[in-house]
Design a protein that fits this description.
Layout: H1 5-20, H2 23-49, H3 66-80, H4 84-101
């Protein structure tokens, strides 16, 4: 079984930083970055779980929900990752999103 604990730690850290960020930072793009990451993580999970089916798009439920959306999507994806390469790719996505979010 693949050890996805590095992903869990990275996402939990990003989510904690988002929750602690001031509203002004969320409005300047951190919330949009979180939503974009959550949508990509959810898309990847759906493609692995149901190849051939069109992935559903995670809805935008507001700037204060981004941390939770990222966390849920990442934990769902962690359950279906199959290789170290997939894990490394997702870890890179999380790191890049956190850097762009500025949190």
């Amino acid at each position: 079984m693949l050890d996805t604990s590095p992903l869990t730690r990275a996402v939990d850290h990003f989510a904690d930083r988002l929750r602690a960020a001031p509203q002004s930072r969320l409005q300047r793009g951190a919330a949009a970055e979180a939503l974009g990451l959550a949508r990509e993580l959810a898309r990847r999970a759906q493609l692995l779980e149901s190849p051939g089916e069109e992935p559903r798009v995670m809805p935008d439920v507001g700037m204060f929900a981004g941390a939770d959306q990222v966390t849920v999507a990442a934990h769902d994806l962690a359950l279906v990752l199959r290789s170290e390469g997939e894990l490394a790719s997702v870890l890179a996505l999380v790191a890049e999103a956190q850097q762009r979010a500025g949190v």
